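Thread: Newbie trying to understand structure tokens

Hi all, I'm a second-year student working on a class project, and my supervisor (Dr. K.) asked me to get a predicted structure for one chain before our next meeting. I've only ever worked with sequences, so writing a 3D structure as a token string is new to me. If someone could post the tokens and maybe explain what I'm looking at, I'd be very grateful. Here's the chain:
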Amino acid sequence: MNIFDAHCDVLLKMWLNPSISFENDKSLHITYEQMVATKSKIQCFAIYIPESVSNIDKFDVALEMIDIFYNQIIAKYDHIKLVKTKQDINTLNSNEIGAMLTLEGCDCIGWSITRLKTLLQLGVSSVGLTWNYGNTVADGILEERGAGLSSFGKEVVQTFNDQKVWTDVSHLSEQGFWDVMALADYPIASHSNCYKLCDHPRNLHNDQITAMIEKDGMIGVTFVPQFLSVHGHAGITDILLHVEHLCSLGGAKNIGFGSDFDGISTTVRGMGNFKCYMHLIEELHKYYSDELVRSFLYQNFVEHLPE
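---
Reply by user tm_fold:
Sure, no problem. This is what the structure looks like when written as tokens:
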């Protein structure tokens, strides 16, 4: 069964440790061998620049991660192809895997639309406006000020509309979220869960979820234990509870998964790496039809790609 995973941090780990091979390195949650074995079809690879990198160096680091993406993932494996659009995905052969490039936080562009457009031209097809703190575009969810989009941020979102790129609200402040809802043509939450079930600030409140559904945006249920359970540890059942809560709000066609593999230090019980998607699939089949399971795992995200 095909899998579309909307968020991982493989590029960060490979940037931090150049000796890591994507082939089968045991330090990675996602590897080429695991993707092939588990029938991955689309994997999103995030560019995330750590907070420790100075502002002056962040754009260069973004380019270095893009270089890793193209030279150590795309070029190295004949069966992995760059995809940016629904048409790209539809042209993949049955044995090919699509790799999408995403950006987690606009810190690296500063005040420059030119830098942003350069990243889009290099293949970025989904952009999260912030990480947890503030930047020139907006405030993140942990920024105490809690501001929404700046004037520049509104220009950034309009650029995404014009370029038919996803605007990712994961990590964004609540006011920023509502500003995006008013402006964005293609909103998603690549890796966020339900606040009602786990009151972590990174999770979405019911009114936010409803707004996303009304805007026909996608929500990627994530495997971060702290976002799944107030206990700080979680099992596959907790993932299913968040899926069911989204369904109860009318979001069956707006649910996907954004694992956050390689961006987390602890994992869900039974979900220690990408191969464990098979355990999740087995559990999903106990409660949902084949059609819905296929939608959650793959089809919903594909259908919500901009035309």
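A couple of things are worth pointing out once you decode it. The longest helix spans residues 58-74. The first strand starts at residue 3 and ends at 5. Feel free to ask follow-ups in this thread.
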